[in-house]
Amino acid sequence: MSITSAIVLFAVIWFMVLFIVLPLRLKTQGDVGEIVPGTHAGAPADAQLGKRVKVTTMIAFPLWVIIAGTILSGVITVRDLDWFERMSTPEVSGTSE
């Protein structure tokens, strides 16, 4: 795995975790009863983005370590995920008679 692949893998995991963390314990303007004119009642009253980013990073990093370690160890390969057998088995060449 190259450094670019590792960064992309972390970014994908981080954003997936962020989208899971964002709605947790969310207090909307409608729940609080202080709806700002021109906004939807379902808009967050206090988004607490800094806290959510920290929680996301603390969850995403161990997940990334586990997934990257699994990929680098070779326990699971791309061929293991080929459920429809579209990838052919590589032929060994070099034997001449």
Features:
single chain; 97 residues; mainly alpha; elongated
Structural class: mainly alpha
What is the terminal separation in angstroms? 38 Å
Number of helical elements: 3
Mean pLDDT: 89
As a percent range, the share of strand residues is under 5%
E-strand count: 0
Task: Give the biggest sheet.
Answer: none
Instruction: Give helix and strand order, one letter per element, not per position.
Output: HHH
Oligomeric state: single chain
Bulk shape: elongated
In short, what is this structure?
By secondary structure, the chain is mainly α.
Structural description of this entry:
The protein is an all-alpha fold and about 100 residues long. Helix content is about 50%, strand content about 0%. It has three helices and no strands. It is elongated. It starts with a helix and ends in a 24-residue tail after the last helix.
Topology:
Elements: H1 3-21, H2 29-32, H3 49-73
